[in-house]
Amino acid sequence: MEFIQIDVTGCRVTGVMTVAGNLGPKHHGVLLGRSPLDGLVYIAELVNAGYQICTFDEFKFRYQQNGSISIEPLEDPESGIDNANRALGEIAEGKKSKYNLLLNNNCESFVYRSMNRGSSSVQVTTAIGALVLVASVWILVINRR
Hints:
37% of the residues lie in helices and 21% in strands. It has four helices and five strands, in the order ββββαβααα. Strands 4-3-2-1-5 form a five-stranded antiparallel beta sheet, with helices on both faces. It is globular, with a radius of gyration of 17 Å.
């Protein structure tokens, strides 16, 4: 599938997943550009079922009811087409296609790989840190009794 570069090609797009709004988990994708065939803007994403390409309107329909859709500007605007091509390349190769929230192969880590930022997931790291903190406090409280 070919895409025409637009001003947000290669940017990360984020949608809110739950009614918790911006405080809750978010879904991430990479904006690919506009299709010359139908004129629609497309997004690459990694979901539980694996890789998929959807339209921006489909993405918006799934997540907008929980909060706003955000598009993160690129630090280097020249990298946009490279980011989109890396996302499409990973989809074509099918590597790391098995979705795994805890082993850093989720939607956020897919986007970070496409942006050449490694393969991390801030959401997972934050959640694990919060669990460790809660468990530590709980153990300290139990031991004081």
